[in-house]
Design goal:
Layout lengths: L2 H11 L2 E7 L7 H10 L1 E7 L25 H7 L9 E2 L10 H5 L5 E2 L12 H11 L20 E2 L6 E2 L1 H15 L15 H6 L1
Parallel strand pairs: 1-2, 3-4
Antiparallel strand pairs: 5-6
Length: 203
């Protein structure tokens, strides 16, 4: 569950469960954490997240005495010596996809698990790599990932769903997908659909 899902109904239902798994925990803060443990009965709480995700800064913390409100939840719990475990193996994504982020953000700790090296698990990696080499001829990297520097407009909030989106980011992604679908590199049935988070919850 994410904080959005929690706020959508669990506070009202006040459930009693054995375990609660909270995803994207670093985007939450201490206020969110206290709201969760105060409005649901559970035996164990397991927080999942990446300390390098964008940290949510509670506006109530600006100029406040309690600096803990400015921390991401995982950062706060680590600072206060809560038990934790870290996973540094890439198991489901193509090998070498972390070739950039691992040394830059994780001190080179993220490694490819042996299962990612099996060609049967990622048979399309070379196809996608060739596609990106043709689409962006100025980038000759053989890593199966591309970073696009886009100077776009700020995010906008949909008035109906209240979800946030960046139209410039979306237009670039759609353009890439179209370039991949036309020559048959991407299959439309295998291509994720960009929708608001509220729509994702309904589907």
């Amino acid at each position: 569950m994410t904080l959005s899902a929690f706020g959508a109904g669990l506070v009202v239902d006040h459930p009693v469960v054995d375990f609660v798994f909270m995803d994207e925990s670093e985007t939450a803060n201490l206020v969110d954490f206290l709201t969760l443990i105060g409005n649901a009965d559970f035996e164990k709480l397991i927080l999942l997240g990446d300390p390098f995700q964008r940290i949510y800064r509670d506006p109530r913390a600006n100029g406040a005495t309690f600096k803990e409100l400015e921390m991401g939840l995982l950062q706060y719990l680590e600072h206060n010596h809560w038990p934790r475990s870290q996973m540094y193996l890439n198991r489901r994504r193509p090998p070498r996809i972390n070739a950039v982020v691992s040394p830059v953000f994780y001190d080179g700790k993220i490694q490819d698990a042996p299962c990612t090296l099996d060609p049967l698990n990622h048979s399309k990696t070379q196809t996608y790599l060739d596609f990106f080499l043709n689409l962006f001829p100025g980038c000759k990297s053989n890593y199966p990932i591309r970073y696009i520097s886009l100077q776009g407009k700020p995010e906008v909030q949909d008035s109906l769903t209240k979800s946030w989106c960046n139209l410039d980011d979306a237009s670039v992604i759609i353009n890439i997908i179209e370039n991949g679908v036309l020559p048959g590199c991407f299959k439309p049935t295998k291509t994720p659909l960009l929708v608001h988070y509220k729509s994702q919850q309904k589907s």
